[in-house]
Structures are given as structure tokens and as C-alpha cells.
Amino acid sequence: MKIAIVILNWNGRTLLETYLPSVVANTPDSADIYLVDNASTDDSVIYTQENFQRIKIITLDRNYGFSEGYNRSLIQIKADIFVLLNSDVEVTFGWLNGVAEKFQSDPKIAALQPKIKSYTDKEHFEYAGAAGGFIDKWGFTFCRGRIFDHLEKDNGQYNQPTEIFWASGACLFIRADIYNDLGGLDKEFFAHMEEIDLCWRIKNSGYSIWYHPSSVIYHLGGGTLSQVKWQKSYLNFRNNLFLLLKNDYSKGFFFKFIFRMILDGIAGMKFLLDGYPMHTYSVLKAHLSMYSQLGSMLSKRRQLKKKRRNPNLAGVIHQSIIWSYFIQKKKTFSKTLD
Fold first, then answer.
1. How far apart are CA 294 and CA 222, in angstroms?
2. CB atoms within 10 A of CB 159
3. pTM to 2 decimals?
4. What local confidence, expressed as pLDDT, does residue 222 receive?
5. Residue 8 is inside which H or E element, if any?
6. Which phi and psi (to 5°) does residue 207 adopt?
7. Of 20, 154, 219, 321, which cross-links 126 as Cys (Cβ 3.0–4.6 Å)?
8. Do the bridges between strand 89-91 and strand 208-219 make them parallel or antiparallel, or are there none, so unpaired?
9. Phi/psi of residue 208, each to 5°?
10. Which H or E run includes 6?
11. What's 33's DSSP letter?
């Protein structure tokens, strides 16, 4: 199976200097490596051309964001498996070992995620993906190894391949034909949770998604409130609502959606009390944006519901992660399931 590693870049010269060497050194010649440049204004492309002649470069005419940037580039790449890899990821020796074999073992496997650990604290899991993504009854997403801001130390507790609900966009292995058949990433998300939306569409189409722990990467990332701007918080709140509107066809969805909006409001008030007024504003802006795009999302919902077949709900946790984490004080995945 032909594998293509595709790295999206926008003004990331410093990141490319730090992380590209590991990708080139640890990727066998049988796999292609692409840099997709989202119309950078720095010298990212020149740097890559001069220092990594193996890397193929696709340049876009403007910054299309994460979702559309990948969509516009992947249609130009011929491969069986796409690897969507963030530019701030260090890969390890053997990170592609067993990937093609896992896909070949079962045609229903559409996507895989590696073990994702922190680049700055390599004994711990990293926020964006950790040991595989799950979703609770109210549509809140979390990971084995990371619930909200609590990151677990990797003690080998998640060393078994496991079916999951969503795979992280920090390093997403996905069959090219399925990516194309499902329309790729939704450009209305722009950035954040677009890979979860794609994964939910994959699951609603009856395919499976797996955590592949023999592949290990280190992601710089960063997900705590102090590390992000309010704009990221806005996208996360808004896109989580988009996620539910498009893909959740469960019984009592209308009640669930209204309750989720109420929970968002509570979160906004907590931000304000904790001294983060701009994050309170991000919740308000997220809801206003959701209303402005409600028609578009409901149209997509109707279209996707018609295509839904034999949905695979593995990875849905039928309890509240909010209740478990904040009320019962269960900070780890294993305790959440107790």
C-alpha cells in the first residue's frame, strides 16, 4: 500500500527546522513526504527546498486553513493511505511499522491513530489525541490518557490496539478512497474538531477507527486554557455544536442539543468567574455563529442522514464525562468507566 505523509504549513519555518528532520530520518523511502504550504509569507518553502530535497512541495494560493488546505492538496496526491501530520510533530523510529498491515487486515478499518505523547514532557500523553478519542452521551470529546486538562503519565496502560471513536488530526492515518468518498474535511470548521467530524461520518458509514500504539509520536501541541487564545476556544465551542448538528441522530437529539447549549452557557459563566472574560465572549460568539450557519448545517445533516448505513458506535461512552470529571473527581479514563 502506498503511503503519503502530508504536512500542512503556514509560516512555520521554526517548526519545520525542529520537526522535519525526524520525519525524513524515520520514514522509509517507500513512503512519499509532502509539504503543503498555505501561502506562507516566511521562507518555509525555500528552507524546505534547500534542506530536504526528498520532500515534495504543494503551494496553495492563499491560507485555506486546516480543513480546506488539506482538501485542496490531497486531491493532487496519489496514495492508498494519507497521513495527515501536524508540523509540530516528532516521529520515532518505526512509526509506520504495521500501519499498512493493519489496514490490509480488515477492509472496514478506515483510519488509525498512533500513541501521541507530549514533546515537552515525553513521559506523559499529549492533549490532542493521547491514546485515542472517545465521546460521551452529551457530545463532549475526550481521550484515553487525557480528560479535559488532566494528562496521564504513560505507564504502558494503553499499549493494546483498541477501537476508538475518533482519531486525532495531529497524526491521522486514513484510507485515501474513504477520505475522498466522504468529501474530506468540512471547510466550514476551518480548524479544530474537523477531524472528529470526519471520523463521525466514517463511523456513521459503518467503518471502524483504531488506536495503533506500536506507532509513537511526540506532539508539541498544547491544550490548557492558559496556552490558547480565546479564538481557539471560540472554534472549539462552535465546532462542537456543528459536530452534533451534522452527525448525531440519536433518540432525543433535540433535547440533547438544547441541554448542550445550556452547559456551554454554564461554562461561559465559569470562565467569567475565573477571570477569563474573553473566553466567555468566545462561548457567546460560538453560539451566534452557530445560529448564522444553522441552515447550512441542517442541510448537511439531512444529506448525511440519507447516506447513513450500519453505524458503528464503538467509542461512544453512555455517561457524562462532565459529571464523572467535575463531580465524581474521576480524572482518568479507567476510573471514568468504573
1. 30
2. 12
3. 0.95
4. 55
5. strand 3-9
6. -90, 170
7. 219
8. antiparallel
9. -115, 160
10. strand 3-9
11. E
Q: Which three cell numbers stand for residue 248?
A: 448525531
DSSP 133-163: EEEETTS-EEETTEETTEE-B-SSTT-S-EE
Per-residue burial over 80-110, b if 16 or more Cβ lie within 10 Å, else e, is ebbbbbbbbbbbeeebbeebbebbeeeeebb
Strands 208-219 and 3-9 turn out to be unpaired
The β-bridge relationship of strands 162-164 and 146-147 is unpaired
Cβ burial 224-245 (10 Å sphere, 16+ → b, else e): eeeebebebbbbbbbbbbbbbb
Beta carbons within 8 Å of 25's beta carbon, 6+ residues apart: none
* Architecture label for domain 3-223: Alpha-Beta Complex (3.90)
Domain layout of the chain by residue ranges: 3-223, 226-336
**pLDDT confidence of residue 227:** 45
Nearest to 80 by CA among 211, 195, 174: 174
**In whole angstroms, what is the distance from residue 134 CA to residue 198 CA?**
14
Nearest Cα neighbor of 141 from 334, 320, 326 is 320
User: What radius of gyration do the chain's Cα atoms show?
Assistant: 19
Return averaged pLDDT per consecutive 10 residues of the chain, 338 residues in all. Answer: 97 97 98 98 98 98 94 98 98 97 98 98 97 96 96 98 98 98 95 95 98 98 58 94 97 95 96 95 97 97 94 95 95 89
Amino acid at site 61:
D
